[in-house]
Amino acid sequence: MASPPPPERPGPGVVLAPGDRVVVTGAAGFIGSAITRALLQRGVDVVATVEPGGRGANLRGLDLRRLTLDVRDRERTFEVMQGARAVFHVAAMYRFWAPDPEVFYEVNVTGSRNVVEASVAAGVERIVYTSTVGTIGLKGSPAGRPADERDFARVDRLYGPYKQTKYVAEHEVLRASAEGAPVTIVMPTFPLGPRDGRPTPTGKLVLDFLNGRMPGFVDTAMNVAHVDDLAECHLLALERGRVGRSYIAGGENLAMRDLLAHLASSTGLPVPGRRFPRVLGLGAGFVSDLVEGRLLGRHPSVPWEAARMSTTPMVFDDSRARLELGYASRPAAEAIESSARWYVENGYVRPGRYARISIP
Hints:
It is built from 12 helices and 12 strands. By secondary structure, it is α/β, with parallel strands linked by helices.
């Protein structure tokens, strides 16, 4: 079903010109570095911010100005935004566990408020905020229809501090938009591709497969997109998106068994043969979170939030971005192969498994 026509809102899109100053927070991250590279291709002056102590490998060799920024530091954030024509706020605490859950609120909520307020004070023409499809409701969609921007989430089903704080942060960003902040929101789905060095929870699935740490799978589904396509959607949101409007940036809806089949065909490795019941995955997440996370104070092998996500079909309809922004995405198979190839070529695969991999 196509989205209804967008409401008329003030503030046309911003078309960047060579030399325009653009700030990207979280620029060394997976999606942030892809956005940074896409901006550099347009010849703009990129100010790339990296968290204190953060890894900057994804920015190595790029012609840009790199600054250290903790978005929780309000005064420093106001300094960094000065002179920018546009801001891409990508920095976030994207993980499923931390010893102190409060840091999720500090970074994802307070940090986002700081960036938006600083951008408004600096006279920035447009802010593109990176949210997540994790803030969209899944249970309320009619059977057989992928979720879209109109499906609201049940608060009691937002499991884990990442989703909860991104939901609150999105609310704060939209409230700022209602008060005049020129914000457009992009909601990426399941990104795969090169330079996911940490890795993010999505890249970890590919890496676990490559390293033989996936004895089986739960019969679920997700929307897979190449990270470079998601970056392009962010730029389209800047150029063509409307203020106060949210856009899902997605790709192709795939069953888990099909994703693993693509991984197998692109690497020569076998598909995990065991299909686990959903309750087993949830049980593993509950026990791991309780024993490793709460009692031992270390990162759980299977975080509860990750278990919930991996056992819940997460399929989405990104028609709004395609119709309103002109967004397009490559086949999911290309994103999957690109991700696997990058991990193999950059030393992330154990020697015993590496010897068994054959990538065309």
